[in-house]
Design goal:
heterotrimer, A alpha/beta, B mainly alpha, C mainly alpha, A: alpha/beta, 6-stranded mixed sheet, about 25% strand, C: mainly alpha, binds adenosine-5'-diphosphate, binds magnesium ion
């Protein structure tokens, strides 16, 4: 992944020279003072500063309603931002997202949702080939071959011609991962990918994500799976009330959290 | 109401079932007896009338008129072959799809779209044969032609209207909402009346088109408003997360509508749309009062013939049977489509 | 080994960044908002243009026929006969009065039809849940037959085949009229029965769907409390089903109102037949049409208003 041809982040007019973030090379995500205010006036993100390096795996934790989903949804333009500065894979996002830029970002950023969100009217294979065929305009035959190989890797090749409703939750989530990967993304966003699963299906999905991390995929994962975070994450980010409260290595965060709110949270989930 | 089959010889079981279904209490017995007497006597007098008093010559002698209208007798094979083609298409659609070659199954929707132009060619221009003016078209054949034309016009128009009604452009939204609500607030006969008598007032001198075309246009504009609402209902039933998934994959708004939203919306709306198709057939009967000789219109002219004085009951029962049969056929076609889509959806 | 990435290399190299993308927004927001405005202006002009064109054609056509748009003629005597109705009418009365009579006639058949169709529909819908096999089958048969025959044929059947065909049927209508001391005509009865039977079948379906939406547990709970079938339905199930039934009823009521214009087939003087006759006599197509639309707007609003009120009452209680 180090040889990636993705555009490097360049300092942009308005940035302070010697800024903390732009000093780090090869950033996948760079946000500074991010504010998200919903149309109803609710502020879901307050001055969020976060940098995700290429090849890094960042796990976001925090109580329900703390703004985790909102934050990663700003990364692929599902939510607009109202203040601050956001740069994803070198592209800039601002208050009224330029559709062309958002389109480009989405081609390189995969997203996996809590509720799978497979397309119920399309077969598993069609779910995976849809975007490469229509968005990347690639040849159907090669796309199909690649898609089958991907499905093979996530272990559901046999189900390629079935429909989402015929699969278990764990299988559906692995299809959703394959669907996002089919666009060869440079950044993967996971929003609580295992929260809607039966306990016995959680492992198979985490296994898939772990394999992906082992290849050096850049990932931002919202999850409460502590075991997974310990093993896979390079960094854990703890959010509460729309703010980043603590940022640490998994080792430090799980054994010796600094902030009171982190301690309270961990005491509840551990 | 779970029937737990109890042991016992079949006749005893049957008796028990009969008792439970018909005579479980005094009130139940009373209802059963009264209904049985009323239905029995009704059925008896109907049969008595139908077999002994009715004169079915008014139906038998005019079969050709009911089906083909006043189509020139020398050319009538054209009319029959279109009806035949339509029948074959219905049978093919209703057949279990594993009995058909897959290519055929895939082409069926195309055939259904093509059957209308084929009908027009066969009936009007006659593929190099003698042209037949549309005023000679009539009977069931005209009813079906009008119905097909209406559906093929109203469905795409309805989809466009439904999409426009939730457009981000306020003006477009207001215009389509106004159109849809206006159409749905008006009685059909007023729309047809407008179409047949008033459209000429709005066109430049000398512009005319045939009654049949005017009828299809009015019916189509009318039905489109209803279909638009059904499609809109389908669109609204799609969870927002589907759109987010589509957008996350980089699909443009247009592609999202075409590949993710519409296919799901049309599936959801299918039963409602099927009802509209049946309504389209029933609606064509109104044109009997606007100078078209479709099934009801031709029947009125048959009844005006002094030979068949007072044979209304026979004719109306016959018509009811024909309309009923076609409606049921349309409903089962829709069920078939629904089922074939379901296979790919839920199991 | 990079399992996920080797098998499908990026076909598209990441789009090279054009300077346009990197700058926060080179194109100001107002320019992005300009497109929708232009688009709407275009649509607006197109629609206005089409309307203007049609209206100018209309103007030309009407001038040629010497029929400039006006409502003056409404005061002139109508001179056409009407079937017996609630409001008194003579042929010397004005067109305006004829329209009023037609509107009253329409309202009369719609209101009575709504009540009867609702009764028939509720009975038909509830009957399909009866434990009585015969009753259940009859309800199904009724819906299957009545819905699949065009409403116009319903009317013609009752009018021509029953009331005109059997003098006894006609006599009973006259007897009913003199008993109730109401001006009930054969045409009114034919229209009323035809609309009731047709709409009743649709209402039965709406009611059946509503009852189906009540969880089965409610039936079982009621039965275990010792309620009989009829009382379970009346006291427990129907009140709950009402919430699902009312919106469907609203659209069936409006359908009944619209179908009442089929009165033209049986010679009942409703508002549409007045408009039609007026057009035939005076050539005043546009004016008659506007009056007709106004009448229907009033009827639809009336029905929707009443139904909304009911809906609110039901929601309040539930
Ligand atoms: N579209 C919206 N409009 C208004 N408030 C919203 C919207 N979406 C989310 N929120 C609010 O923003 C806060 C953060 O939501 P979210 O990011 O989904 O939390 P998390 O994923 O951490 O549970 C919550 O309080 C939620 O109610
Ligand atoms: Mg969340």
């Amino acid at each position: 992944m180090a040889s990636s041809t993705a555009p490097s982040s360049q300092p942009v007019s308005g940035d302070q020279p010697g800024d903390r973030l732009s000093a780090v090379p090869e950033l996948a995500v760079r946000s500074q003072g991010l504010d998200k205010i919903f149309p109803n006036g609710f502020q879901a993100l307050r001055k969020v500063d976060l940098a995700v390096g290429k090849g890094e795996v960042v796990v976001i934790m925090g109580p329900s309603g703390s703004g985790k989903s909102t934050l990663i949804r700003t990364f692929n333009g599902l939510e607009t931002i109202q203040g601050g500065h956001l740069e994803v894979l070198g592209y800039h996002l601002d208050a009224d997202n330029n559709q062309k830029v958002v389109g480009k970002i989405r081609r390189h950023v995969g997203m996996v949702f809590q509720s799978f969100n497979l397309f119920p009217h399309l077969s598993i294979l069609e779910n995976v080939t849809l975007a490469p065929v229509w968005v990347q305009k690639r040849d159907r035959q090669t796309v199909k071959k690649d898609a089958l190989a991907l499905l093979d890797h996530v272990g559901i090749r046999e189900q390629a011609y079935k429909y989402p409703s015929q699969l278990s939750g764990g299988q559906q989530q692995r299809v959703a991962i394959a669907r996002a990967l089919a666009l060869s993304p440079q950044l993967m966003l996971f929003d609580e990918p295992t929260s809607a699963l039966d306990p016995e299906k959680v492992k198979e999905v985490l296994e898939t994500i772990r394999a992906l991390a082992a290849e050096g995929m850049t990932m931002v994962v919202v999850t409460h799976e502590v075991g997974f975070a310990r093993e896979v994450a390079d960094r854990v980010v703890f959010m509460d009330e729309g703010m980043i409260v603590e940022e640490a290595s998994p080792q430090t965060f799980f054994t010796d959290p600094k902030e009171e709110r982190s301690q309270l949270f961990l005491s509840r989930i551990l | 109401m779970a029937d737990t089959p109890r042991p016992g010889p079949p006749p005893a079981q049957l008796l028990r079932r009969l008792r439970r279904g018909l005579f479980s209490s005094h009130l139940d017995t009373l209802i059963t007896v009264v209904l049985a007497v009323v239905c029995g006597s009704g059925l008896w007098s109907l049969l008595h009338w139908a077999l002994l008093q009715a004169d079915w010559a008014v139906v038998q002698d005019n079969i050709r008129l009911y089906f083909n209208g006043n189509f020139p007798v020398s050319q009538i094979w054209r009319s029959w072959s279109w009806l035949g083609l339509l029948g074959v298409l219905c049978i093919l659609t209703l057949m279990p799809s594993r009995l058909l070659p897959p290519a055929m199954v895939r082409l069926l929707p195309l055939f259904w779209v093509l059957i209308l132009p084929i009908g027009l060619l066969l009936l009007a221009a006659g593929l190099g044969f003698e042209p037949v003016k549309s005023r000679f078209w009539g009977g069931l054949q005209l009813s079906l032609l009008l119905t097909l034309g209406t559906i093929l016009m109203a469905l795409p128009l309805g989809v466009l209207l439904a999409l426009a009604r939730r457009s981000s452009l306020p003006l477009l939204r207001w215009l389509t909402t106004g159109y849809i609500e206006l159409m749905r607030g008006m009685p059909l006969i007023a729309v047809l009346f407008f179409g047949q008598l008033m459209i000429p007032l709005f066109l430049p001198e000398g512009w005319t088109f045939s009654r049949v075309l005017r009828a299809v246009l009015s019916l189509g504009f009318f039905m489109a408003a209803y279909m638009a609402e059904d499609v809109r209902g389908g669109l609204q039933s799609i969870p927002r997360t589907q759109l987010e998934a589509a957008r996350s994959l980089g699909l443009s708004p247009l592609l999202t509508v075409a590949l993710v939203e519409l296919p799901q919306a049309l599936r959801t709306a299918l039963p409602a749309l099927a009802n509209q198709c049946v309504a389209s057939l029933q609606n064509t009967s109104l044109l009997a009062y606007l100078g078209l000789i479709e099934l009801l219109g031709i029947s009125r002219s048959i009844l005006a013939n002094p030979d068949y004085l007072g044979r209304h009951l026979e004719v109306y029962l016959w018509l009811a049977l024909v309309y009923w049969a076609v409606c049921i056929l349309m409903t089962s076609l829709a069920r078939r489509v629904e089922r074939s889509l379901k296979v790919s959806d839920h199991h | 080994m990079a399992v996920f990435t080797t098998h499908h290399p990026l076909i598209n190299e990441p789009d090279s960044l054009s300077p346009e993308d990197t700058l926060v927004s080179k194109r100001p927001a107002w320019r992005r908002k300009l497109l929708p405005i232009l688009l709407q202006a275009g649509i607006g002009l197109l629609v206005l243009g089409a309307i203007a064109l049609l209206l100018s054609n209309l103007q030309i056509n009407l001038l040629r026929r010497g029929l400039e748009l006006s409502f003056d003629w409404l005061g002139r005597p109508a001179r056409f006969p009407l079937s017996r109705g609630l409001l008194p009418y003579q042929t010397e009365d004005s067109y305006a009065w004829a329209f009023a009579v037609g509107f009253a006639n329409s309202l009369q058949v719609v209101v009575v039809g709504l009540i009867l169709a609702t009764m028939l529909g509720v009975i038909g819908g509830a009957a399909s849940f009866s434990s009585n096999w015969l009753l259940r089958k009859l309800a199904t048969l009724y819906v299957a037959v009545a819905r699949n025959v065009p409403p116009l044929l319903h009317l013609l059947f009752w009018y021509v085949a029953v009331f005109l065909g059997f003098p006894a049927a006609r006599g009973s209508v006259d007897a009913l009229a003199s008993w109730l001391r109401l001006p009930i005509s054969v045409e009114f009865m034919a229209l009323l029965i035809g609309l009731t039977v047709y709409t009743g079948a649709y209402i039965a379906e709406v009611v059946r769907g509503g009852i189906n939406s009540v969880p089965r547990g409610q039936w079982e709970a009621a039965r275990s409390l010792g309620f009989g079938e009829g009382r379970t339905l009346r006291l427990i199930i129907l009140p709950q089903a009402l919430r699902a039934i009312l919106p469907g009823l609203n659209s069936q009521y409006i359908n009944l109102a619209k179908n009442s214009t089929l009165a033209i087939a049986v010679g009942y003087s409703d508002i549409f037949s007045i408009a039609n006759t007026t057009f035939n006599q005076t050539g005043r197509a546009i004016e008659a049409f506007v009056l007709l639309l106004g009448g229907f707007l009033a009827v639809n609003l009336l029905i929707s208003g009443v139904m909304n009120l009911l809906n609110r009452l039901v929601l309040q209680r539930g």
